[in-house]
Amino acid sequence: WGERTVSIRAGEKTVLQAGMCFHFQSGVRPPAFGAAISESFVVTEKGGERLADVARELIVVD
C-alpha cells in the first residue's frame, strides 16, 4: 500500500518531523458490509494540522 509506511501506535520508533503527512482511517467491517471514515494531517513545527476543513460532528439519521 505504500513505501515506508508508519503506524501511529505504541512501539513505533519513527520520529515525526515537520512536513510528514498522515492519513488516519478507522472503520467497521462486519461480514456483510463495511464503513470507514478518514482524515489527513500534516506534521508542523507546532504540532499536527488537519488538512480538511469539514465539520466534526456526528449526524444521526433515524
What does this structure look like?
This protein has 62 residues and is mainly beta. Helices cover 0% and strands 35% of the residues. The chain has a three-stranded antiparallel β-sheet, with no helix packed on it. It has one domain. The mean pLDDT is 87. It has strands spanning 21-28, 35-44, 47-50.
- How far apart lie the N and C ends? 36 Å
Question: Secondary-structure element sequence?
Answer: EEE
The order of strands across the largest sheet is 1-2-3
Oligomer: single chain
The SS-based structural class is mainly beta
Poorly predicted runs of 5 or more residues: none
Quickly count the helices. Answer: 0
Brief descriptors of the model:
mainly beta; flat
Layout of strands and helices, then pairs:
Layout: E1 21-28, E2 35-44, E3 47-50
Antiparallel strand pairs: 1-2, 2-3
Q: Short summary of the structure?
A:
With 62 residues, the protein is an all-beta fold.
